[in-house]
Specification:
Elements lengths: L8 E8 L4 H18 L2 E8 L3 H12 L7 E7 H15 L4 H8 L6 H14 L4 E5 L3 E3 L1 E2 L2 E2 L3 H7 L4 H4 L5 E2 L12 E3 L2 E3 L6 H6 L1 H8 L9 H10 L14 E4 L10 E5 H4 L16 H8 L4 E4 L3 E3 L8 H31 L12 H11 L5 H17 L1 H10 L3 H32 L4 H4 E5 L5 H12 L8 H10 L4 E6 L2 E10 L20 E9 L8 H15 L4 E6 L4 H6 L3 E2 L14 E6 L1
Parallel strand pairs: 1-2, 1-4, 2-3, 8-11, 9-13, 10-14, 18-19
Antiparallel strand pairs: 4-12, 5-14, 6-7, 9-12, 11-13, 15-16, 16-17, 17-18, 19-21, 20-21
Length: about 600
């Protein structure tokens, strides 16, 4: 089986809820590398749950990425993600859509849920693979150049094990698995521990051992538990990258991290990740599926650099992360039996086409949901005793944890039950996502210079947009703006029909046209003023604005402009702020704009 010819569109995804403008720039460079080196079209998907000001900074970083026709960014806030999910869930025919929406977009942090959203969007975009990175990581350098993990991911994902052998430094794959597709390619990290327990190890190694060993299966031997503690959370060590090492085999999943991984669509379109909230580790579930199915994978050494964000060092951040760690320990009561069931099933997890039987996995999850909670009560007792022994903020956390015990025990069971429900719904959701699609303006729009045949529609559209608010200029004034700078005035075509326009002209920074006056002459300025931008009613809300704006910004840069300005009217300043434009309330505007208009600009 060789699907390498299908690998034309991929999804490189970055979920985030924190400031990471630098990471966006870095991952944009990885996207460009993938497009240039492998001839793929990259959909750069940023799922952004950050606050409004941080989102604005991220939008600015996205807007500053080099423009390439084969790298297309989709920067979605939670509102856009929710809208997409509602359309998908409705199309899927789900009998009870609201609980399903809560599992896909919960009101608490969920590493599994955010990755599941990326899976569905990748399906909607028609991507052959997904490649996941995190906002608290970066790339190593070799001779001053970044070391991109996507190199190995694109060499192997989707190819048969036999064909993928030519792209690795070591082939340890049993020939019996040679016809199966490479379903996963991953690596690890260097730097700080992936879980925020390093300080415990420094304070008291014995306590560290006792606490970390809580995630081992109770039936393991002391030797096995010691090995788990030694291997846990350390990633790829500390040695920097010097040369490629990549191994094709049924993978050892201890050396793979979810911030440095790629999956083939035949895997993630069949089985989602557990959507548990306020926990860690649940998003590693597919690694166990790949190992036990068994399916080929490539493990390489292009480790990313892990670091802790400042938020983790705050009091609130410490409490939140330690609670996630405790919930991770409790989840093992339910996940270990599932992992053992996967191992026992082995090849029976796959059909004749080497595709995973999702229903079998859902059954395993349901069977474990009724597990005796006594082991989890013991885990909470050990955490309480150990943290009180550490004292200080750890003892304070034990006080914080005590009244939450019953709730956490209930949540751990509910999480595995929700996972089984989501697996059942997953096939229809993926099919619905493919049907609904994610609005892809790049595939259907054309931005071109204005021509005479546009003017009747342009003037009519402008009147509909502004007449009621008293801001309409009329045909003569509009034509005068375009006449002084025809090279910077554009029409938007959608499916070969007029879909909107932009009138832009050089204007001194801090100044703008008066709506009540026609333009009589052109200015010589490095500032391009986007005077009037309107999209037709039927195209609004489809995500066309950011794409249109990026194209205009790229054109302005190519023409030598250094800044783009505008006057935001009808409370549109919120949209423009998200696209990286900054308000300047000191600029006095002509009276023709009314009292709510805001002058905004952005350096190009």
């Amino acid at each position: 089986m060789n699907r390498s010819t299908d690998l034309r569109r991929i999804c490189l995804t970055l979920p985030t809820n924190r400031a990471c403008a630098t990471t966006i720039s870095d991952i944009g460079a990885e996207a460009a590398y993938a497009a240039e080196q492998f001839g793929v079209e990259v959909r750069l998907l940023i799922l952004d749950s950050s606050d409004e000001s941080t989102f604005t900074e991220h939008a600015k970083a996205v807007g500053e990425l080099p423009v390439r026709p084969d790298v297309i960014a989709h920067h979605l806030d939670e509102a856009a993600q929710r809208d997409f999910l509602r359309r998908v869930i409705d199309r899927s025919g789900a009998a009870d859509p609201e609980p399903l929406l809560d599992l896909m977009l919960p009101d608490a942090v969920s590493y599994g849920a955010c990755t599941n959203r990326a899976f569905l969007i990748a399906a909607a975009l028609g991507c052959a693979s997904i490649h996941r990175r995190d906002s608290d990581s970066g790339y190593q350098l070799l001779d001053g150049e970044p070391v991109f993990p996507i190199h190995h991911e694109l060499l192997s994902l989707g190819r048969s094990g036999t064909d993928a052998a030519v792209g690795v430094t070591e082939n340890a794959l049993d020939p019996a698995h040679g016809a199966k597709p490479v379903s996963m390619v991953g690596s690890s990290f260097i730097g700080e521990l992936s879980v925020d327990v390093g300080e415990i190890r420094e304070l008291d190694p014995a306590v560290y051992h006792e606490v970390v060993s809580l995630w081992a299966p109770p039936e393991w031997s002391r030797e096995e538990v010691d090995g788990l503690v030694e291997e846990s959370f350390v990633g790829g060590g500390t040695d920097p990258f010097t040369h490629d090492v990549s191994v094709l085999d049924v993978p050892d999943i201890w050396r793979i991290d979810m911030c440095n991984i790629g999956f083939d669509r035949e895997l993630y379109e069949r089985v989602p990740l557990p959507p548990a909230t306020a926990t860690i580790g649940s998003d590693y579930f597919l690694l166990h599926v790949v190992r036990h199915a068994p399916l080929p994978a490539v493990v390489h050494n292009r480790h990313i650099v892990n670091y802790y964000t400042p938020e983790r060092r705050t009091g609130a951040g410490f409490l939140a992360y330690q609670l996630r760690f405790v919930k991770f320990l409790l989840s093992m009561l339910y996940f270990h039996p599932v992992y053992f069931a996967l191992e026992a099933a082995g090849p029976a997890l796959l059909d004749a086409e080497h595709r995973v039987h999702a229903a079998t996995i859902a059954g395993f999850a349901r069977q474990t949901a009724g597990a005796d909670r006594a082991e989890n009560v013991r885990r909470l007792d050990v955490v309480d005793r150990c943290y009180r022994r550490l004292g200080g903020k750890y003892a304070e956390f034990a006080d914080h944890l005590a009244p939450l015990r019953d709730r956490l025990l209930d949540e751990a069971q509910a999480d595995i039950e929700s996972f089984a429900l989501l697996i059942d719904a997953w096939g229809p959701l993926v099919a619905a996502a493919r049907s609904v699609g994610l609005e892809q303006p790049d595939d259907r729009i054309r931005i071109r210079p204005l021509v005479e045949r546009d003017w009747d529609q342009l003037v009519a559209l402008e009147a509909r947009a502004y007449a009621e608010s008293g801001l309409s200029e009329g045909d003569v004034a509009l034509r005068s703006r375009a006449a002084v700078s025809p090279a910077t005035c554009f029409a938007l075509e959608h499916e070969r029909r007029f879909g909107g326009y932009l009138l832009a002209l050089p204007y001194p920074a801090g100044r703008c046209p008066d709506l009540s006056l026609a333009e009589t002459s052109a200015f010589a300025s490095r500032n391009l003023h986007a005077h009037d931008f309107v999209i037709t009613e039927e195209l609004r809300g489809r995500g066309l604005t950011p794409h249109f704006v990026r194209q205009i910004e790229a054109t302005a840069r190519a023409l030598g402009f250094e800044r783009l300005s505008m006057v935001a009217v009808q409370r549109s300043h919120v949209l423009w702020a998200r696209l990286g434009y900054t308000a300047d309330h000191e600029v006095a505007l002509p009276e023709s704009y009314g009292t709510e208009a805001v002058y905004m600009s952005k350096a190009l």
